[in-house]
Amino acid sequence: MKRSELREHIFKILFGIEFRDGAEFSEQIGTYTEEMEGAGPQELEYVKTKTEKIKEKIPEIDELLNSHTTGWKTSRMNKVDLTILRLAVYEMKWDETVPVGVAINEAVELAKKYSSEEGPAFVNGVLAKLAD
């Protein structure tokens, strides 16, 4: 599986955080990864581990997002864009295996697929501020 496909699975799991109790999170990851077709053991472990690491950093990520956006605090953002931003910010700040430009590009691609018409530009704008 390509990294972009794995990233998309991570996005989908993280999106569910907004709608479920945090105590269910580990169970949710397990259930989701059991249903992932075409993924080997290393890919499943990658998705689980990275998703858990991102979840742990959400308060810190949200603080970064709130300090770099004007008029768009995380509480006002639509959940798709917020999830994409959380994933990208984690990759930009804490995942040394992902270059900043790749994190931004992949986030914009996710926004094109899952967000509104304005989503890609919004995601790109926010991440560009964080990349400086």
Short description:
With 132 residues, the protein is an all-alpha fold. It has helices spanning 3-17, 25-34, 41-68, 79-94, 100-114, 119-131.
Supply the key terms:
single chain, 132 residues, mainly alpha, N-utilizing Substance Protein B Homolog, Chain A
Structural summary, described in words:
The chain has 132 residues and is mainly α. It has a single domain (3-131), classed as Orthogonal Bundle (N-utilizing Substance Protein B Homolog, Chain A). The chain has helices spanning 3-17, 25-34, 41-68, 79-94, 100-114, 119-131. The longest helix is centred in the middle third of the chain and has 28 residues, at 41-68. It is globular, with a radius of gyration of 14 Å.
Number of domains: 1
Beta-strand percentage range = under 5%
Task: Report the count of strand segments.
Answer: 0
Rg of Cα set: 14 Å
What structural class do the secondary elements suggest?
Answer: mainly alpha
Q: The CATH topology is what?
A: N-utilizing Substance Protein B Homolog, Chain A
DSSP summary: helix tally: 6
Mean pLDDT, nearest integer? Answer: 92
Low confidence ranges: none
CATH superfamily: NusB-like
Query: What is the level 1 CATH name?
Result: Mainly Alpha
Give helix % range: over 70%
Task: List the helices and strands in order.
Answer: HHHHHH
Name of the CATH architecture: Orthogonal Bundle
Straight-line N-to-C gap: 31 Å
Shape: globular
Report on the biggest sheet: none
